[in-house]
């Protein structure tokens, strides 16, 4: 068992205990210390329930105990609902007793002051020393309705108890986590388990996702996060969910100013931590929901457990307008809608001469006058079209009493012939009829656009689950960073040790040396000021292109020195870098930014307008192999320019992929002192001719 698996497993006493103590137990079922007891009594908690209150002998009909040391057994978990002033002693006592988990509902710690954070740290230290997992403090608790377990003071269950189902919610926010639960329940969606993590002093949202990923009774995980505190457990949890083929849909809110805080990194200014979060989620096949409605749509459809890889959508509709709407939504979401084969279109024309059989397949309302034709159209969409997902738009017709039962029977017949497809309906019907369609295996949406968004998510899950295991990152020699930020020449030397090639170049201390270097490379050449204190040379006119002869080299040398002294009089100037000017390649950009949560992250994009204006870039956590690098390169919108669009000769994508993967390993090995790397531009030469960094900036932090 891996460390991550052990960490997830250690939460079982918290989430599925056999015995529960409630500290601060109240006889008033409306108080924080009373609600958990009242809820568990009402829902017939399957284990032992022990109220603890030194002032009472009985609480809500149960025997009460003066102290945790008076309990008849060591409980699996304790709910701490005592004032903040005595909560630390409660944790110390529970740790001493050997309790496996504590749920601290009490607030007033790290969320309010530095002093509170210090006390919270003491509580966590005591818990960890005893091997006790601690949830919270300042959390709303959780519920696991399967066993009647409700260590929470949420009022959401007062309006209705959880429905049976196989969706689990993990949320940093107690109020919003239970909002999601309530919204799901009100839609008839079963969410029997919901966990809120509060201050995350120990148990994090990643831990909860990991536990749900390994829970045999959970199929789909819905999560809400404001920030990721602990990257290792989070990424391990997402990996566990993907390995178990369990979809994770995440609502991640909040945007920090990482890009604005990055003083000298072009890469970081493009990134921002929200872009990096998106990259991490994409890496593990997590869908990021924009709204509560979207999250519940995706989670609900995912419970069908059909995730088509390279999925295609076939649409049958009774409305041409709806077909156009669905097609627009599919294109926006990247959902493929291939046309029906010609022979199938002819067959459908023979059935109804004025139908539209391409895809969307519009059978028109005429089909409902000859009901067997509805089934023939549906069967053709499945058999002839071969679509992995079928969306039927039947609007209010599907809810009409004169049609609904016949339509249900027709749909069931098609489903029985093609049971491997994902079936979705857009129907307006009352709750009873909608539930009947759902029970038949058809997920129902009123809005067809929402249906397409959810379908798109299922296809993306399928692609993620089918993705091959990445190859190992390449081996790179040990990285020894200099004491301070190096010059461009030194940066390229360091990167060259990792196999990252640059254009032929030479550092020159005087004009004579520059002329000799230029002659050895052949004209024209590029000349750049060489200074560890001037990282972005073009901003001061510190780069000269197309220097065509010896005289121009001498003149250029003098010009660069003069500009550097004028714009940065205190800068250390080591001379001028003379490099061979490359031609015939495609300009790209590669870089590294150090994210405060996920560590070094690599960036790739095309150069020029593509990065400066369009920000057509992609990110990925380091390190990774050339297969992941190639997938990154091929994923940008401008990739056709590298792959041979409009008669261009394809670029050396293999060399680019190798360079990018080696850069990711270099960054991973360099450690926390490496703040950023910018390789801009990188010239991707024609296929077979390699890739070369024409400029390199390494930003190094203090030792």
Summarize the structure.
The protein is of the alpha/beta class and 703 residues long. It is 38% helix and 19% strand.
Characterization of this structure:
The chain is α/β, with parallel strands linked by helices. It has 24 helices and 28 strands. Helix 6 (174-186) links the parallel strand 9 and strand 10 (193-196). The protein is flat, with a radius of gyration of 31 Å. Residues 258-272 have low confidence and may be disordered.
**Structural class assignment:** alpha/beta
CATH class identity of the largest domain: Alpha Beta
Radius of gyration: 31 Å
Number of helices: 24
By CATH, the topology of the largest domain is Rossmann fold
State the CATH architecture of the largest domain: 3-Layer(aba) Sandwich
Q: Order the strands across the largest sheet as they lie in space.
A: 8-10-9-11-12-13
How is the main sheet built? 6 strands, mixed
Instruction: Tell me the span between the first and last alpha carbons.
Output: 36 Å
Low-confidence stretches: 258-272
Structural domain tally: 4
Q: Could you tell me the strand content as a percent range?
A: 15-25%
Relative helix content:
25-40%
The chain-level mean pLDDT equals: 94
Number of strands: 28
General form: flat
Can you tag this structure with a few keywords?
703 residues; 4 domains; alpha/beta; Rossmann fold; flat; single chain; 24 helices
Topology of this structure?
Elements: H1 3-9, H2 12-15, E1 19-23, H3 35-42, E2 48-52, E3 58-59, E4 62-63, E5 77-80, H4 87-97, E6 101-104, H5 114-129, E7 133-135, E8 142-144, E9 167-171, H6 174-186, E10 193-196, H7 205-214, E11 220-225, H8 231-243, E12 248-252, H9 258-261, H10 266-283, E13 287-288, H11 292-302, E14 313-317, H12 320-333, H13 342-351, E15 361-362, H14 372-383, E16 389-395, H15 404-417, E17 422-427, H16 431-439, E18 443-445, H17 448-466, H18 488-497, E19 505-508, H19 511-521, E20 525-530, E21 543-547, H20 550-567, E22 575-580, E23 586-595, E24 599-606, H21 609-612, E25 617-621, H22 626-635, H23 640-643, H24 653-670, E26 674-684, E27 691-693, E28 697-700
Parallel strand pairs: 1-2, 1-5, 5-6, 6-7, 9-10, 9-11, 11-12, 12-13, 14-15, 14-16, 16-17, 17-18
Antiparallel strand pairs: 3-4, 8-10, 19-22, 20-21, 20-22, 23-24, 23-26, 24-25, 26-27, 26-28
Helix pairs in contact: 1-7, 4-5, 7-8, 11-17, 12-17, 14-15, 19-20, 22-24
């Amino acid at each position: 068992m891996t460390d991550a698996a052990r960490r997830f497993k250690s939460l079982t006493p918290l989430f599925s205990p056999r015995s529960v103590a409630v500290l601060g137990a109240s006889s008033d079922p409306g108080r924080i210390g009373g609600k958990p007891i009242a809820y568990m009594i009402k829902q017939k908690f399957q284990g032992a329930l022990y109220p603890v209150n030194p002032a009472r002998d009985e609480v809500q009909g149960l025997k009460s105990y003066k102290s945790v040391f008076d309990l008849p057994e060591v409980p699996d978990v304790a709910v701490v609902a005592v004032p903040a002033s005595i909560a630390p002693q409660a944790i110390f006592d529970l740790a001493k007793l050997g309790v496996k988990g504590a749920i601290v509902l009490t607030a007033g710690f790290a969320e309010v002051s530095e002093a509170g954070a210090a006390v919270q740290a003491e509580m966590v230290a005591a818990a960890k020393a005893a091997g006790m997992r601690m949830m919270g403090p300042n959390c709303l608790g959780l519920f696991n309705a399967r066993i009647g377990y409700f260590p929470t003071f949420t009022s959401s269950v007062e309006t209705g108890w959880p429905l049976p189902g196989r969706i689990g919610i993990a949320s940093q926010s107690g109020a919003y986590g239970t909002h999601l639960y309530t919204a799901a329940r009100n839609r008839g969606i079963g969410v029997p388990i919901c966990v809120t993590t509060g201050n995350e002093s120990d148990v994090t949202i990643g831990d909860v996702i990991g536990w749900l990923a390994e829970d045999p009774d959970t199929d789909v995980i819905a999560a809400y996060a404001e920030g990721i505190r602990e990257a290792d457990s989070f990424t391990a949890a997402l990996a566990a969910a993907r390995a178990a083929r369990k979809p994770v849909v995440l609502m991640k809110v909040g945007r920090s100013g990482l890009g604005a805080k990055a003083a000298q990194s072009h890469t970081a200014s493009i990134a921002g931590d929200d872009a990096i979060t998106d990259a991490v989620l994409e890496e593990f096949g997590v869908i990021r929901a924009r709204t509560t409605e979207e999250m519940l749509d995706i989670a609900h459809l995912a419970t069908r457990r059909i995730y088509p890889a390279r999925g295609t959508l076939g649409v049958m509709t009774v409305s041409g307008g709806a077909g156009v709407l669905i097609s627009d939504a599919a294109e926006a979401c990247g959902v493929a809608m291939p046309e029906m084969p010609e022979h199938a279109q002819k067959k459908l024309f023979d059935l109804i001469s004025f139908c539209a059989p391409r895809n969307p397949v519009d059978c028109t309302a005429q089909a409902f006058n000859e009901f067997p034709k509805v089934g023939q159209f549906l069967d053709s969409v499945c058999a002839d079209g071969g679509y992995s997902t079928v969306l039927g738009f039947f609007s209010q017709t599907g809810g009409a009493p004169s049609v609904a039962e016949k339509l249900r029977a027709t749909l069931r017949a098609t489903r029985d012939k093609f049971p491997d497809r994902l079936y979705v309906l857009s129907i307006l019907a009352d709750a009873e009829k909608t539930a009947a369609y759902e029970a038949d295996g058809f997920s129902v949406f009123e809005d067809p656009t929402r249906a397409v968004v959810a379908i798109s998510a299922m296809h993306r899950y399928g692609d993620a689950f089918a993705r091959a295991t990445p190859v190992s990152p390449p081996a790179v020699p040990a990285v020894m960073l200099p004491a301070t930020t190096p010059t461009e020449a030194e940066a390229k030397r360091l990167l060259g040790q990792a196999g990252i090639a640059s254009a032929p170049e030479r550092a020159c201390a005087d004009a004579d040396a520059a002329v000799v270097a230029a002659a050895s490379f052949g004209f024209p050449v590029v000349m750049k000021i060489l200074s560890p204190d001037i990282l972005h040379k073009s901003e001061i006119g510190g780069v000269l292109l197309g220097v065509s002869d010896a005289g121009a080299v001498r003149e250029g040398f003098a010009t660069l020195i003069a500009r550097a002294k004028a714009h940065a009089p205190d800068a250390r100037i080591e001379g001028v870098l003379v490099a061979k000017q490359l031609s015939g390649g495609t300009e790209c950009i590669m870089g590294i930014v150090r994210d405060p949560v996920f560590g070094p992250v690599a960036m790739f994009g095309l150069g020029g307008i593509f990065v400066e204006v369009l920000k057509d870039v992609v990110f990925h956590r380091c390190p990774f192999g050339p297969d992941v690098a190639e997938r990154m390169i091929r994923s940008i919108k401008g990739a056709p320019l590298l792959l041979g669009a409009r008669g261009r000769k394809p670029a050396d994508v293999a060399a680019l992929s190798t360079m990018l993967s080696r850069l990711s390993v270099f960054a991973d090995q360099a450690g926390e002192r490496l703040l950023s790397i910018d390789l801009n531009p990188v010239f991707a030469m024609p296929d077979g001719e390699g890739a070369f960094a024409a400029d390199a900036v390494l930003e190094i932090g203090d030792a």
